[in-house]
Each structure stands twice: as structure tokens, then as C-alpha cells.
Write a structure and sequence with these properties.
alpha+beta, Beta-lactamase, 7-stranded antiparallel beta sheet, 3-stranded antiparallel beta sheet, 13 helices
């Protein structure tokens, strides 16, 4: 009996020390959360609140919320295919658009950690100069932070009928996938010939170049590096690379109609542009990926610290605003959004294949704000209970 009492005291002390280590005051005097877990009772309340919010918003999609190493919410609403009455699930595939930039950013930082590249490497280390003197001045980090821009190659190609005809022949062939290497090289040549300017914000071409840098620094393709070092490593079994074989049911936000299958066979969304919008994933997998980013379990990289102290508010595909970072992707029939609070390490992911009452805004900041207002008090309350 005495031994049991001693063990109980030791266990209580262990819990107390763990909680004390996990909760501390930040410089601003607010509670900082490191490793405390939300209680089961409060998890149930969070689930009720989030479900209510998403149903009220007529949300059609999948949502996931993590806090440090704990998954505190995950659920799906609506149909993956309303014609066949196939319901959305947490492993339903969505084309994630711009969230691919976060994965590309992670790949670059992993290669830096492994000594395969340096963020201050200039682009002439990876691409032949051939009279393009600007390649000797621009660094990998400048591409990541958007302090330089190589424009938006899709707009330039679409806006030039002569330029687009070169691609159209390949995309309208019986099997466009077999031309992937040729298309990739054509796009790369176009971007490098276009050059850079000081405009900020339009960074699609930047991330295309970063995808090429991942391939050249790693000695393998972007696709193979990401598959082995991110998807396989984290167990992301329902994540992959968009091609003409991919089929995603979704709501066409431009024409306001449901499309049974969305085929990405144009230069705008085609899978050969993997590194900035050519990936698909699901709520299950993205929950794991963003939890790994928050906790630094990808090659022990303090990803959040790098974003927090980056010289630009746009880094690795995230936009930074104080202690918050967000990323989003908006395609023809899919929306994706992630919000991470860098102080509390709370990450919220929203994936949608049909928007709700307030159209596209309901898959981004506005919907996150509504969810956050319902659950943040519960999270803090649970921590204080601990």
C-alpha cells in the first residue's frame, strides 16, 4: 500500500512537472502552450462547436484541427460525388492548389538541413547562365520569400496565342502524360527567358523554379523526393501528384455548376507543375503534415521559427501576420486553406469541393475566425484544468 502511495505521488509530480513545462507565460504575459493535451471532455465540446459552425455555414468539405502533437478535430460534410451519393470522407482526395507551396518549402528546408543546398546559393548553381546575368544575383531564399518574382507563366502563355499553340498540341494529344518531360522543359525555358522583376506576390513561377532546384540538389525528381521524404516518411498514403488520370468531383465556382469530374489538362492546373499547384491530398494526410511542421519532426527543422523570423511576411508559401500564418489554394472547383497560430501551435485545415452560403470566403479566413471564436476558450480552459 505504501509503495502504491509513493508511485501515485511520483506520478502526480511527473504530471505537474510536464504541465508546468508545457504552460508558461510569453513575453506578452499570455499563456504559451507547448505540450499540454486537451481533455477528452473538452475535445467532445470542441467537436460539437465545430460541427455546428460548419453545418451553419453549409460547408461542403473536410476539416482538421491539431494542437501540437494532438489531433483535436477531424470531420467531413457533404458529397464527393452527389450524382452517386458518395459522401466525403477524411481520406477523400482534393486538389490542394497553393498548399503545394508549403510542401515545396519543406522540401527545400530539408535539403538545406542535409547540406545539399544553402539558402544563400545563387540560381547559377542550378541553372545555366547563358547570358542571363540575373541568375548570379538571385538566391534560393529570395524565391522562398517572394522578394523577387518571375511572374506568372500561365498568364504569359495564355496571353500569347503563338506561345500557347506550342503547348496546345501536346495537351490535346491522346496521352499528354507522355509529354510531361518536354512540357516541363518548355515551361522552365520560358520562365528563365522571361527573367525576374521586383514585383511581389505573384510567385507561381518562383515555386516552379524551386521544384527544379529540389530535383537538381537532391539528384532525383521533385516527385520522387517529395514522395519518399515527405509522403512516405509521414505516412501520407492519400497524397500524390495530379495528372490527366486524376478525377475530382467539385463545384465550378466560376460557372456555378457541379462538375462530376474536374480534369486538370490545361497549362494552368496541370500536374507537371507539381511544386506550386499540382498536388492532391486529404484531411487525414494534411493533418499529419502540418502537425509535423508545427512540431519540427521533418528532419528536426524548426520550420515555424524560420517563418517567424524571415525577413519577408511571405515565406514558404505562407503569409505571416503577427503570430499567425496562413496559406490557401483556389482552383476551378476546390478550395484549400490552413491557419497556424505560431504562439499556441494550433493548426486548422479546411478543404472544400463546394463552397457554402458566402461563396469562396467560407473556405478561408472568415470561416476560420468563426471556428476560432468558438473553440479557443475551450482549449485554454482545458489547459488551465491541467
Amino acid at each position: 500500500m505504501q509503495l502504491k502511495r509513493m508511485l501515485a505521488v511520483l506520478l502526480s509530480l511527473t504530471v505537474f512537472i510536464s504541465v508546468a513545462a508545457g504552460c508558461k507565460k510569453s513575453n506578452g504575459g499570455e499563456l504559451k502552450i507547448d505540450s499540454v493535451r486537451v481533455s477528452d471532455a473538452d475535445l467532445s465540446e470542441i467537436e460539437i462547436k465545430v460541427n455546428e459552425t460548419l453545418k451553419e455555414s453549409e460547408f461542403c468539405g473536410s476539416a482538421a484541427i491539431t494542437l501540437n502533437e494532438q489531433e483535436i478535430y477531424k470531420n467531413s460534410f457533404g458529397y464527393a460525388d452527389p450524382v452517386k451519393k458518395k459522401k466525403l470522407k477524411n481520406d477523400t482526395h482534393y486538389s490542394i492548389g497553393g498548399l503545394a507551396k508549403n510542401i515545396t518549402g519543406a522540401a527545400v528546408l530539408m535539403l538545406e538541413k542535409r547540406g545539399k543546398l544553402q539558402l544563400d546559393d545563387t540560381l547559377d548553381k542550378f541553372f545555366a547562365v547563358n547570358g542571363k546575368s540575373y541568375l548570379t544575383d538571385i538566391t534560393v531564399e529570395q524565391l522562398l520569400e517572394g522578394s523577387v518574382s518571375f511572374g506568372s507563366y500561365q498568364n504569359e502563355i495564355y496571353g500569347n496565342s503563338k506561345e500557347y499553340r506550342k503547348y496546345k498540341v501536346l495537351f490535346e494529344s491522346k496521352n499528354p502524360d507522355k509529354h510531361s518531360d518536354k512540357i516541363r522543359k518548355m515551361v522552365l525555358e520560358h520562365i528563365l527567358e522571361h527573367g525576374s522583376d521586383d514585383k511581389k506576390g505573384r510567385t507561381n513561377s518562383n515555386y516552379y523554379l524551386l521544384g527544379e532546384i529540389v530535383a537538381r540538389a537532391s539528384g532525383t525528381s521533385y516527385k520522387d523526393f517529395v514522395q519518399k521524404n515527405i509522403f512516405d516518411k509521414l505516412g501520407m498514403k492519400n497524397s500524390g501528384f495530379v495528372s490527366t488520370k486524376c478525377r475530382f468531383a467539385g463545384y465550378d465556382m466560376n460557372n456555378k455548376v457541379w462538375k462530376r469530374f474536374i480534369e486538370y489538362s490545361s497549362i494552368l492546373n496541370f500536374g507537371f507543375t507539381y511544386s506550386f499547384n499540382g498536388l492532391y491530398s486529404c484531411a487525414d494526410d494534411l493533418s499529419v503534415f502540418y502537425m509535423a511542421i508545427v512540431n519540427g519532426t521533418l528532419d528536426d527543422i524548426d520550420y515555424i521559427k524560420k517563418i517567424k523570423f524571415a525577413s519577408s511576411n511571405n515565406y514558404c508559401g505562407f503569409e505571416r501576420d503577427g503570430n499567425n500564418i496562413t496559406a490557401s489554394g483556389k482552383l476551378l472547383a476546390h478550395c484549400s486553406y490552413v491557419h497556424i497560430n505560431m504562439e499556441t501551435n494550433e493548426a486548422v485545415e479546411l478543404l472544400s469541393n463546394r463552397v457554402g452560403k458566402k461563396d469562396i470566403s467560407n473556405t478561408g479566413d472568415e470561416l476560420y475566425t468563426i471556428i476560432s471564436s468558438k473553440i479557443n476558450g475551450i482549449i485554454i480552459r482545458s489547459i488551465k484544468k491541467s
